[in-house]
Amino acid sequence: MYKKGTVSRARLLISCPEKPGIISTVTNFLLEHNANIVHFDQHTTDPQAGIFFMRIEFDLEDFDSSFEKLEQDLPALGRDYALDWQLNSNEKRKRMAIFVSKMNHCILELIWRWKSKEIPVEIPMVISNHVDLKEEVESYGIPFYHIPMSKETKEHAEQKALELLKGEIDFIVLARYMQILSPNFISKYPNQIINIHHSFLPAFVGANPYVRAFNRGVKLIGATAHYVTNDLDEGPIIEQDVQRINHRYTEEDLKIAGRHVEKKVLAEAVSWHVHDKVLVHGNKTIVFA
Amino acid sequence: MYKKGTVSRARLLISCPEKPGIISTVTNFLLEHNANIVHFDQHTTDPQAGIFFMRIEFDLEDFDSSFEKLEQDLPALGRDYALDWQLNSNEKRKRMAIFVSKMNHCILELIWRWKSKEIPVEIPMVISNHVDLKEEVESYGIPFYHIPMSKETKEHAEQKALELLKGEIDFIVLARYMQILSPNFISKYPNQIINIHHSFLPAFVGANPYVRAFNRGVKLIGATAHYVTNDLDEGPIIEQDVQRINHRYTEEDLKIAGRHVEKKVLAEAVSWHVHDKVLVHGNKTIVFA
Amino acid sequence: MYKKGTVSRARLLISCPEKPGIISTVTNFLLEHNANIVHFDQHTTDPQAGIFFMRIEFDLEDFDSSFEKLEQDLPALGRDYALDWQLNSNEKRKRMAIFVSKMNHCILELIWRWKSKEIPVEIPMVISNHVDLKEEVESYGIPFYHIPMSKETKEHAEQKALELLKGEIDFIVLARYMQILSPNFISKYPNQIINIHHSFLPAFVGANPYVRAFNRGVKLIGATAHYVTNDLDEGPIIEQDVQRINHRYTEEDLKIAGRHVEKKVLAEAVSWHVHDKVLVHGNKTIVFA
Amino acid sequence: MYKKGTVSRARLLISCPEKPGIISTVTNFLLEHNANIVHFDQHTTDPQAGIFFMRIEFDLEDFDSSFEKLEQDLPALGRDYALDWQLNSNEKRKRMAIFVSKMNHCILELIWRWKSKEIPVEIPMVISNHVDLKEEVESYGIPFYHIPMSKETKEHAEQKALELLKGEIDFIVLARYMQILSPNFISKYPNQIINIHHSFLPAFVGANPYVRAFNRGVKLIGATAHYVTNDLDEGPIIEQDVQRINHRYTEEDLKIAGRHVEKKVLAEAVSWHVHDKVLVHGNKTIVFA
Q1: Which residues in chain B are contacts of A286 at CB distance < 8 A?
Q2: pLDDT by residue (tens digit) across D63-86?
Q3: Which domains does chain D have, with CATH numbers?
Q4: What is the DSSP-derived secondary structure letter of residue C232?
Q5: Count of CB pairs separated by less than 8 Å, B with C
Q6: What ipTM does the predicted assembly reach?
Q7: Which residue, among C214, C216, C181, C185, has the nearest Cα to C195 in the 3D structure?
């Protein structure tokens, strides 16, 4: 197998209007750069006139020089073929900020998967509008910032958060953060804010989904991880799952059962995002899971 | 075990306001009537002041005389304790009418489970607003009635259907019947009409759920079997299930994948209804599955 | 609703050879003792000549005196009707010992559900044959005992564990404890030791199930929680679940995916055990979940 | 979109020892042959020294001449690069023989998916060791051959079947066919015979899996579709799924519940086989579903 330290894995994401020969073009380019393709995923919204999406995971020997060469030569390829592209490697971990309120089930699942190396990120900070989780978060060596938030202070509080985040993080996870972010805030991180909604969207958009699920008498409850846009609970869905319930479940039981779906769905969405497996197309996602 | 012909199974459903000793009262009554309890299910919406639901499945030796005695004595018990009750036995099969339009996947699943004795019913008739399935239905020896329906003829057509059904059937299954029944029709069969909606309600209430699921980019599609009320797609949910999909599914693929969830969910809801396992409470169901 | 402090919930488990009127007898008894039945579950292995199982959850006003009266009068009822019975209440929490080796995913899930009050137990101690998890366990205020174990020291080590446990705990959870307990040890806690096996039993009994699942090319991996008996991986199964995988999963990926099934399956089995929802019948369980 | 009649979809399957540039080579080749790639799937067992698998689905304008050209030029490409390859198109449907015994649930599901165009095959014949399903199969216009089989007549009966099949079919589905095929028979259709086993393999290999599942007290039952090899129930697994059960299920109930898993799992495996989505590697499959 590979000698440790000399080979590294990288990922190239490409999207462009459908055109003949695009796969050949890109794989030829990688071949010339000594990239050894490990996984190749592709999708087209319409083979005649749609949008083409591609994710290539590849190994590079002599990583430092090879990757540098790729970074140098990709812009020209992109220009020539009108490609949107993104290049990442395992050598550089994404930096994830977590926003929480009072509930700890989602953030603890993320932290556990981070510590067990299942989600390879850095966590430069946790931001919360409450102090409840401060001690627990700090016990993992993660900086915790308390930014109180009310209707009146929202603009100011978001400004403070943006300053903390600036240049320090790559994406944000709302791990049961019970505040609605402003369009201004969201515009700073397009398709880089992941939220967990505690229902099977589009059912029960908005507040108190478990109470409404209880009142409607559904037989399954669910959770949805999605990118945040200005339309509440309408952003591109990354992952969803459900849990069977029955007539014996009280509202409280729904919340308890739901926690386990929420933490699983959010953690998987975050893992896919971190591994560059999620591409956004309009209000939908392509997930090369 | 039992000698064939001398023992039969029966079911007693009871609901009443919560009161002390209700289980003792009813089980004592059954004991006196020589009923041997096989399954006992119970639910209460609130142990202090809620509604109490009970389903008892029991064996009766010397069925004819024992059952007759039960039928005689239950009304008095019901009066004394203010019980809503319902008594059924395997000796008398429920009679099911099926309403269809053009698609055959749901009705064929019901027919297969009927022929394989998984759903022990009689099927006195199928009613359709199209002729497409006439030959197929009749090949199973089931009478097929074609009642065309348009906006203008709806009242007349429903009247015709009601005349056909009157006294001949116990409940109705809408097996992808693409017409909305009038309040007048529905009032004749309260909680006795089962519909299959091709989405995970309350997501995508109304028309074209698969198209809307495609456009929203959900990661799971579902189906919902529910009793029909005057509020479209708002009746008590009996069963729901989902099927995982991904970005490769076209609208057409969603419809195809959805058919298998629809037929399964509908068949299970019908089976539970036939076995008296579904009790309705307001807009919700208690399912003793 | 209830006034705090004056009402408590209790549970009565009963098993006996099938006999007429057993439900009436027991519910009459509870009625006389002012117990208000909240949940009633029942099962019979054969309505004519089988074993009858019953679980009744009920509320008691004036808990202290009512419960004491129940405890006094139950033995006579049990004698008269040849019942096996067990009486528990929410007032007295079960005491759970956890055995671990090096992996923390299962124990952390148990600890989280304990801290969030989802699993209402006391955890008097964690015992491990390694020191790896000492600091983490103690950070939750739980005593941690390191008892090294090798083939040679096994008898002595188990003796030491038994002394620590004696009188201090009610049941034991093996949360990925990588040692096989001796028949002598197991005999001290019959149907009171819960193990998580990392496969969908009876597939892949024994060591290295993920490696063997990988080699066999299965499309689902699973986990099984069961009571421990002297026959390795053959004890009564409490809960099982599976996770879909595909050809891209390496052996390492199977282990990672499996962890999430393991922790969920074990936590649910433990929760049911704690709530007295699991009855054992021979090598099988009845789970009133 | 495409003009009807002028464009058709084709599929190229490739496997070979891992080598640099293989994707470029093949996609360049397809580009030169005016193939428009619609779906591209790839897998490698080891990026350095493993086996490489590829499935490309592509559209061809002027199908007749384009496809002919591909068929002419592929052998040379295969030789030059030491590729195993297979080329198919939607223009030519695979021919499927179905073997059954007495149970009809699996074959009816296949027939329904065939009639609804979900599984695009031809069904030249059904062969059975019983006459029970003759009338039902023939009602769909499918020739039915009854070949009785006993220990003594097995060799002769298989010979008769082989003669019927020869040149008429491409693959065989054992839709609950309760006979074990001989190595001689199997050798004629390597990786072209699909069986449905009524358990979650490798649990309950061999006879009476539901009885054994009942006795073991499992909480999920399953079904497994696999290619038939000389080792009973040991062939490459194509698909598996499970169904939750509980202590109330009798052996008979397990069989009934199992039927629905069996028919679904088998139909999906057959559909994938028909669409060339299954590649075999040793005793495992790669499924590009």
Answers
A1: 247
A2: 888 999 999 999 999 999 999 999
A3: 7-89 (3.30.70.260), 94-287 (3.40.50.170)
A4: T
A5: 48
A6: 0.94
A7: C181
